Structure to design on (215 residues):
């Protein structure tokens, strides 16, 4: 089994050393480096294959969005998962637009982090539900209505449920409709937006292309 190669970037030495040991115990993970600065992380990326960077948002010398831009410019083609104590809706949205594949909050369990890493490594997006709710409110207040204009009210309602991380059943209960009706609406959204997964729907909503979602 080929292991997922991880690079940890966090300016708190105790946290990243402890996390390195914890993740190294997973049979499908390999820690190829850990460091506390953007410069050190970029140097490691220049000489070592990395599948997923675990990146703290607020480094002592820098912010994550600048590292993301620099890594992309340097040719890094792997994934990046933000692992942070907290980010605002705008900060999270900017990181995802710049190239991050997810936002993981440090209050979650080690098992949840391992799951998030595996999803991101597989090409999915993972965003903590608390961050999703913050971004949902941000998008709802947006003036951009580019694609929102072509969505029906039901599609907007289902989209918001997806954006908040609700299951089909939870969305159905919220709207007082059947699970089948929610699934049918999701298929309509997939066709209109030309995506195939819920995570892709969330991404384009974050990027602002869906316009405000009605409450």
């Amino acid at each position: 089994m080929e292991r997922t190669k991880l690079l940890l970037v966090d300016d708190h030495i105790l946290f990243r050393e402890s996390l390195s040991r914890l993740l190294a115990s997973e049979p499908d993970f390999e820690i190829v480096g850990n460091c506390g600065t953007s410069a050190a992380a970029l140097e490691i990326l220049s000489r070592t294959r990395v599948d997923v960077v675990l990146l703290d948002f607020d480094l002592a010398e820098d912010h994550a969005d600048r590292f993301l831009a620099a890594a992309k410019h340097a040719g890094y083609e792997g994934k990046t998962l933000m692992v942070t104590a907290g980010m605002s809706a705008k900060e999270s949205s900017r990181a995802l637009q710049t190239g991050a594949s997810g936002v993981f909050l440090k209050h979650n369990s080690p098992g949840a982090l391992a799951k998030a890493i595996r999803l991101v490594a597989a090409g999915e997006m993972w965003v903590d539900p608390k961050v999703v709710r913050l971004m949902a409110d941000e998008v709802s207040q947006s003036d951009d209505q580019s694609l929102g204009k072509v969505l029906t009210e039901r599609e907007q309602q289902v989209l918001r449920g997806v954006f908040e991380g609700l299951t089909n059943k939870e969305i159905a209960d919220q709207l007082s409709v059947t699970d089948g009706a929610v699934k049918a609406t999701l298929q309509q959204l997939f066709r209109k937006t030309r995506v195939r997964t819920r995570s892709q729907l969330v991404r384009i909503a974050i990027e602002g292309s869906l316009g405000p979602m009605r409450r």
Summary: The radius of gyration is 18 Å. DSSP finds ten helices and six strands in the chain.
